[in-house]
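Quick start: what a row looks like.
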Amino acid sequence: MLRFELERLRQMGLLLETDVEVDAKFELGGILKKLKNKRPVLFNRVKGYKMPVCAALYTDREAVYKLSNISHEDRIYKLMDAIANPKPFKVVDRGPVMENIITGNIDIRKFPHPYFHEKDSSTYITAGMLVVKDIKTGRRYTSIRRFQVIDRNKISALIASPYLINQFLEMEKMNRPLEVAIVIGYDVPFLLASQVSSELYGVDKYEIDSALRGEPLEVVKCKTIDLEVPAHAEIVLEGVMVPNKREMEGPFGELMGYYGEQKMHPYIEIKAIMHRNNPIYQAAFPCREEHLANGLLREVELYYALKRLVDVKDVHVTLSGGYRFHAIASINKKQEGDGKTAIIGALSSIKDLKHVVIVDDDIDIFDNEDVELAIATRFQSSRDLVLIPEACGSGLDPSHTTRGVSDKMGLDATRPLNNERFERCRIPGLENIDLRKYF
């Protein structure tokens, strides 16, 4: 899983590797911040710990495509095919993650959990994949959560997902703990599968992983709880989410660069640890790996929402908008009104989406300059702006949380039909000019 990915990133010339000792408190995160969290890094020496830390592995769109053997052009269809045609996983007796099994004297503080921001309440596990089993169907649910380290065997969990909240509350009504595992050290198929909506599709995330992987995901049984975890993971924490008890969680520097709120949240008691020999700890600067993968799945949902309404060419849920607030869609406009229809479809397809720009299919939606050109020359606010006040929004947007509602906006930056003034200037043969021939 993770080790294979690191080697592939190394072969692609993308992995930065350092043997200089770094401090997990502020320095490690500061380096990632300086790199804009866009280059995978392997820190071989972390002060006070005996294991390396890797981070920012899955923050680059093109790298994720290569690691998952998909292309930009076929990403929508391949991700949707995995959702529509899940494949069985495989339970095996042994796996590398079982090379070390600790059930007594648990101390999760031996792992190099980073301390990212000055006002963070504690060290955090930021790339940990939570695994639970649906209490009614038995299907496996995975999602990346943030976990605040409280004590030797105790972490708090931010369970913001409605699905996860409902699972925990159902168990809490019976005064029973919810069994959970936290996987650290995984690959792109496991990450992408975790971002598929269980509420929307009712799927087993392990079966989605197998479909994306092209072969069965190998899993092993946990030692103290009734869950299976990837056999080739680096580290697994086994535990239970304790009913009718809460711990203060936060503040924590979140995705958009603001501190999340401090609130009471459930906590997990760790019962066992499994890990490979010489494990590699996986971290994520809050929290681009998760949100790029989430953005790719949001693009699937946005594409199919628009496909029912207009002739959509491609969609882009943007990095700068946290892979949730901003989207751009290009359409083959066939009638006046298609741009407005696409705006309505886009804003209704994803609750978190706040601003959407609709452009023609001659605009490269992954080129900010091209998109800005469309807004500058094809948009008039008096007729092309769609404003929806006080709608539902995202808890990650502080301008939403102050009032509990969010204004939404769409920009129709499509050109009028049959108007030759909007014909783009072309140079014949431009695509065949190779500047290396001249310079």
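That is the whole record. The first strand starts at residue 16 and ends at 18. The CA atoms of residues 119 and 278 lie 32 Å apart.
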